[in-house]
């Protein structure tokens, strides 16, 4: 299957996702966010969680804070 065929097949879904403000590249950080929530529920301090996840995923601490903020935000309204 070619890339264009996959994009064509999922065009409506991809447009909706983009339209409500979700970045498709963020899908690689879903596990990071789940780990963040787990560590937070275990009572770990935010600065510790961010430092651990930053090292584990080889990204900056600022990027971890940005991802958490973005994943916690509400989606924009989608107008048809």
Main beta sheet strand tally, sense and closure: none
- Classify the helix fraction into a percent range: 55-70%
Find the structural class using helix and strand composition. mainly alpha
Uncertain segments are none
* First-last Cα distance: 30 Å
What is the H/E string? HHHHH
Q: How many domains?
A: 1
Percent of residues in beta strands?
under 5%
Rg (C-alpha, Å): 16 Å
The number of distinct helices, counting runs of at least 4 residues, comes to: 5
pLDDT averaged over residues: 92
| Gross geometry | elongated
Number of distinct beta strands: 0
List the keywords:
80 residues, elongated, mainly alpha
Concise description?
With 80 residues, the protein is an all-alpha fold. The chain contains five helices and no strands. The longest helix has 12 residues.
What does this structure look like?
The chain is mainly α. It has one domain (about 5-70). Helix content is about 65%, strand content about 0%. Helix 3 (about 30-40) runs antiparallel to helix 4 and helix 4 crosses helix 5. The two termini are about 30 Å apart.
Strand and helix map with partners:
Layout: H1 3-9, H2 11-19, H3 30-41, H4 46-57, H5 61-72
Helix pairs in contact: 3-4, 4-5
């Amino acid at each position: 299957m070619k890339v264009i065929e996959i994009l064509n097949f999922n065009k409506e879904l991809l447009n909706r996702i983009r339209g409500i403000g979700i970045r498709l590249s963020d899908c690689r950080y879903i596990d990071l966010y789940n780990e963040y929530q787990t560590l937070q529920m275990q009572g770990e301090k935010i600065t510790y969680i961010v430092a651990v996840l930053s090292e584990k995923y080889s990204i900056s601490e600022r990027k971890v804070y940005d991802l958490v903020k973005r994943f916690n935000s509400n989606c924009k309204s989608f107008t048809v």
